[in-house]
Design goal:
Layout (H helix, E strand, L loop, with lengths): L3 H10 L42 H13 L3 E5 L2 H13 L5 E5 L4 H9 L3 E5 L15 H10 L5 E5 L6 E2 L2 H10 L3 E5 L23 E4 L1 H4 L7 E5 L6 H11 L6 H36 L6 E3 L1 H4 L6 E2 L3 E5 L7 H12 L5 E3 L2 E5 L6 H17 L24 H5 L3 E5 L13 E3 L14 H12 L3 E3 L8 E5 L1
Helix pairs in contact: 1-9, 2-9, 3-4, 3-8, 5-6, 9-12
The protein binds pyridoxal-5'-phosphate (PLP).
Amino acid sequence: MEHLYQKLSVYDEEDIYPFHMPGHKRNPALMAGFLPYRQDITEITGFDDLHHPEGIIQAAADRAAALFGVRKSFLGINGSTGMILSAILSCTGRGDKILIARNSHRSVYHALYLKDLRPVYLVPAGIPGMEVNGSIDPADVEKALARDPDIKTVLITSPTYDGVVSDIRRIAEIVHRAGAVLIVDEAHGAHFVFSEYFPTSAVRCGADIVIHSIHKTLASLTQTALLHVCTDRVDPDGIQRQLSVFQTSSPSYILMASLDWCMDLLSQKGAGIFPEFVSLLEQTRKRLSETDSLVLVDPHERWPEQVYAFDRSKLLISCGQTEMSGPVLFDRLCRDYRLHLEMAVPSYVVALTSIGDTPEGMDRLVNAIQELDKTVPHKAAEEDRTAWISFELPEQVLSIAEAMDSPAGSVPVLESEGRVSAEFVVPYPPGTPLLVPGERITGQFLQNMRRYIQKDIKLVGLKDMDCRSIDVID
Ligand SMILES: Cc1ncc(COP(=O)(O)O)c(C=O)c1O
């Protein structure tokens, strides 16, 4: 069957005059030439319907399912965000308990808000001296499910933003034994199935639903994602219903065609593209491992107890032994070398690599790091960084929905200890909430917050962008 991207390009050449949306009418005289207005249509005759796919969209979804080796895939144009909301809402009843990793993306918390779900948290292993979250321990999943047999949905993020993978195979066995379903937010791991160099994808480890941001680590346009149904424990019709809630009724065919194109590229050429990428990546890693102060870290090799596996496409460069912080290194790379990395936390930066990288790009990164490595001063004295990972779950006084919908008022952060928060406080990156609405503000939270601010890490979630005040429940 014809591909979506082919049909779109043929349509552009046909003499069809549009008396329908979008209002730009694909009129080149009106629109500047550099954006793809000519292909920008939405659901018109012959182009199927994202919300009831039966034709060309269904065929693209079926090809995606075959490529990933799953029972069914859904195309998404609202990122993993839309997929996560749909997955959670389709697997839970209002007010249910749900077991989630604390380092879940904000879309997970928004799903909890929408259905007044009660979270039970899994806290990832801490790593001494670095802010990186470790894996979720399967034993913690087992204990939590034994303690709360009414939990019927579990959600784990694997890999994390910085590449840390959990033992999904064991976790899936435990979850299924307890009669629950496992959703894996594998937004950052869509490339895993294409090479054994990477950790095994959750689609092959027994997870029930797996979510991929194809735009993050593969080669489709921003916002595109796939939701895979991997077992018969979940109801695809229920997921489709929720996807219609969280996705626009005017989906962009440019986005969907780019997903289809990417799937086609990987089916046709993936067997050649990935070995080439892995070889370039390994050469880059080898060269980066020859530095003195700015150190390339593989968290699985360094901390095998806390990190089950690591996605080596993430270049995690530690500056913990130097006088330079992660955000400063990030800025220097951007300003002096025109290299824009994915993220910075106090003790490291992360460069995201993918099949889109070129030898020249990798070379520029290696040269920049080697040059900075020669000039950056070593730390005079070892800093006590253990406090960075002293995170204890705050007391949950109200559910997220109760807290977000309750009357609240603003108080100075310094006077907020003991109050119940109405807001999220999320260091970004890496995006793991320090505080969630409904939780009691503790002295330890305030101390962590101060540390993030001192280290120039942006805290998001607060209405007051300067982080001086916080909304608390009246
Ligand atoms: C772990 C994780 N899950 C989900 C998402 C949401 O993905 P998207 O941007 O495709 O909506 C993100 C975004 O960065 C993320 O880091």
